[in-house]
Amino acid sequence: MDAVFVPNKQMEYVVSLKIAVLPGDGIGPEIIREALKVMDVLNDHFGLNAEWQEAGIGGAGYEASGDPYPEATQKLAHCSAAVLLGAVGGPQWEALDKPLRPEAGLLRIREDLGLFANYRPTKVHRQMLEASTLKPEVIDGVDIMVVRELVSGIYFGQPRGIEVRDGERYGFNTMGYRESEIRRIARKAFEAARLRSNRVCSVEKANVLDVSELWRSVVIELHQSEFSDVELSHMYVDNAAMQLIRNPKQFDVIVTGNLFGDILSDEASMLTGSIGMLPSASIGEKFAMYEPIHGSAPDIAGENRANPLATILSVAMMLRYSLDRADLAEKVEQAVEMTLDDGIRTGDLASAGEASVSCSGMGDAVCERLVRLA
Ligand code: IPM
Ligand code: MG
Asked: C-alpha dihedral over 325, 327, 333, 337, to 10 degrees?
């Protein structure tokens, strides 16, 4: 990751915290606005000294410069300590050629920055036990980290396409993993587990897929050679999908490929009551990007109704992993807890009949509490 401590001429350490902010589409700009309010509070009351610059991505990038991952955005990302992203996508861009669609911009920035490890924590907030569709006793205490491989697998595999074969259209993709790609993501999962409850469950479909057979054997080899202190289990993805709602507390770290991780992390998010609560960190050798796991929610975009907490919690992950400020990450997380304790809910979190606040109302509520923690 980029060095964040830059010695200046007087040989004092000056902290350079330049962040690339990519609001994107749909509710992206609204939730990012609230996250930046939190950053303002950290600058003004906690001496953070972060600076940021905004640039386009997804549909917004396409509208401004005809490319969902514009060159200016790429340049900015490459010289920043971290990237904070809102969300991409919307119905108005669905008819475009695939390389011009918003999602292509997101996949390209992940690939370009080499963000192979995607950390998606699912932690059930006590105050939210009633918000989940699952029974409180099933979800109370759930604390799972999904470690999703993000720059390979079926999302990127070649060949791919739609063509005419034997007089009918044929669509195809390729799910492939090099052993080095499996090893590096498995390593991240084992390392994460050592800092948590020391358990890794590797999820694949080794009873059917060759790529999964290789996945499993590489995970086992790495475990035996370097991580035998970590408890390792293996699960087929269909069973994992079932176990996640049957008994989610059995999981600590789940490591899995790109597609299975996409699906299982959405499923895991519902344990918390709302996908609007889940942050993520995508980390490579040199760069890191932080984004909520939810999408651009075009149906509520521009209505000031979105839940900004996943983005605010992504700021906390950025403070911890890229800006070397775990102390401030804790403050932000604490301010979010206090807000939930006080019964403040956006529409997605409120139960029937319960009052709810707007997106900016939620951001203000978190900021007020954060100021109190200064
Ligand atoms: C996610 C999203 C993306 C993905 C989409 C928007 C391309 O669903 O970050 O989980 O599939 O990776
Ligand atoms: Mg997804």
From this structure: -170
